[in-house]
Amino acid sequence: MPRNAGGGEPKTFRDRIEIFGLTDVGRVREHNEDAIGSDPDHGFVVLADGMGGHRGGEVASAITVSTVLETLADRLKTINSGDIDEESGYHLESIAVHEAVIEANEAVFASSSENAQYQGMGTTVVVLLFHDQHMTVAHVGDSRLYRYRDGVLEQMTRDHSLMQELVDRGFYTDDQARNSTNKNLVTRAIGVDPSVEIDILEDAVEADDIYLLCSDGLTDMLKDDVIRNTINDNSDDLEKIASELIRQSNESGGNDNISAILARPGKSMATGNGLFSRFFGLSS
After folding, report:
1. Strands (E), the chain
2. Which of 98, 111, 193, 279 is deepest in the core (most CB within 10 A)?
3. Distance CA 37, CA 48 (A)
4. What's the chain's average pLDDT?
């Protein structure tokens, strides 16, 4: 997986967090518009699922992943781990993640504005950062973060999609939404507008947590119970989990590009309890 190669002394996260990711074109699409990346030294991973004609989706997701990798690594080098932003009450690491996603939005929007063939391109994004016995996730769109803890799979992000809004309002059940032809219409995306609203969640990390970042090419093909069982049956091998999720998605149709990143923090990263959780959404 690609990672930031910037200078400076590496942090200790490389030995404290296990990471493995795969991306696959699927069985229908000609090009892979997903992009994934990781920075083991600074303890974060990023996934983007692009959209747009003339390979614009590939460009948008690639810009987003590279911008987040570079910007967030630079921001983290200036932060004292555990410090709190006085104005918002959140860890400075969460503010840094938010700033990195803002930079990605501006970079994709600028590229779209300057290149006629890429006008209107955009991408989802989900970023997971570990810090000070906590995790921060930032996301825009319908790519997801799941957490597997004590045999339970929980979706940590909420889709920014038209269908999710209709489910929230009671017009559709989850099963009806899953079978809808309009389920992939997103209501937020990176690079479509000069600014974007970004959801940020902070939570405590527990020993033996497994985190899954994935594009909708996986979740459209596999129900949550299949994802849970796959993680449960292969919980000692992140590479096997990722490979199995990709394989099963393709066997179920492979209608879109499929990407999965697994991350497991070591016991030194864990607080031992899950009583801490904070959420906020900000516009850039």
Report:
1. 17-24, 34-39, 44-51, 122-123, 125-131, 134-140, 144-149, 152-155, 197-204, 210-214, 258-265, 277-283
2. 98
3. 9
4. 88
